[in-house]
Amino acid sequence: MNKRALIVIAVIAVLVVASAAVAVMYLGKGPDNKGTEGTISIIDDRGKTVNLTEAPQRIVSLGSAFTEIIFDLDAKGKVVAVDSSSMWMVNNQTDNITNMREVSKLSVESVIDQDPDLVVIWNFDMYSPLITNMESSGMKVVAFYPKNITTILSTIEVLGEAIGEKDKAKEMVTSMQARIDAVVEKTSGLSESERPKIYLELMSKGGQTVGNGTMSNDLINMAGGYNIFSNGTKNWLASTESIVEKNPDIIIIENQSAKTNDVLKATLGPSVTAVSEDKIYRIDGTTLTTSPRVVDALENMAKWFHPELFA
After folding, report:
1. For residue 212, what is the DSSP state?
2. Do 40-168 and 188-305 come out as alike in CATH topology?
3. Cβ distance 211 to 232 under 8 Å?
4. Class of domain 188-305
């Protein structure tokens, strides 16, 4: 074989090797690569790493907060089934979305029937057996339990990445954070005497109030108020006597409650400042949850607490 032929063969060999290397890099399957280029890898609130080879196209959302996030990220078309708490967002006439009803009564088989490539669920202890069984059946599951504004924002980012809408999720979080900052900038420096005393009653919790360690308590503080039951923890049913004794300046009750303002006034009596000054406000209960609209709740509270600052 002459010298010229050897050179040609060598050049061809180099080109073949180079092409193969480019192909490997493109496919993300080189020895030092941990997955394909399209692989999505997130860590949920269990601390578990969940890997997806591509953005899911058949999502089962078992929590209204997560459903709302997914819909707000323009990914409604990827959702094939939701739980009953999410159905208020679904148009039964036009949306081809199955109602899975109550999560606590779900069977693994009913979820399998939806052929999901991702299931989103609350990271509640009561759902642990269901989550374990779904994963044992080969389903990809992400579980979240955000408990305050900071973790709501991080959940939106992580869930957005999990469903292939990372950029939209970042934009949403940036917008929400700007609105939060606009409120806190005006309220963070308020003294205790400048903060009105607040009583909040949740229809969604059977008329219970909120204590320290709850998202609603955080919202009251961030909006420039003082929760009259902040010495307690979590949720409980406050007695009429204790509410009257603490004498709130402002009362907030979820709009979904059957209890009218007149009934509340009659129950508490005119000695309560919020009653005598007619400062009982109704709030949309769906904003007091881990969804993008939680900022709406914060802004409404801020306007009610400090109209002079948020005209």
Report:
1. B
2. yes
3. yes
4. alpha beta
Give the pLDDT score at 23: 39
Residues forming a β-bridge with 254: 283
Q: How far apart are CA 122 and CA 160, in angstroms?
A: 16
* Per-residue burial over 168-194, b = 16 or more CB atoms within 10 Å of its CB, e = otherwise: bbeebbeebeeebeebbeebeebeeee
pTM equals 0.83
- CA neighbor of 76 nearest in space, from 90, 92, 93: 90
198 in Cβ contact with 225 (< 8 Å): yes
Q: Are strands 280-283 and 250-254 parallel, antiparallel or unpaired?
A: parallel
Domain boundaries along the sequence of the chain:
40-168, 188-305
Q: Which of 24-28, 101-105, 133-137 has the lowest mean pLDDT?
A: 24-28
CA dihedral sign of residues 55, 59, 62, 65: positive
CATH class of the domain whose range is 40-168 = alpha beta
pLDDT digits (tens, 9 = 90+) for 87-126: 999 998 889 999 999 999 999 999 999 999 999 999 999 9
Distance of alpha carbon 232 from alpha carbon 165, whole angstroms = 39
Nearest residue to 182 via CA among 227, 222, 151, 152: 222
Question: Quick one: which H or E segment has residue 152?
Answer: helix 149-162
Contacts of 3 (CB under 8 A, 6+ apart): none
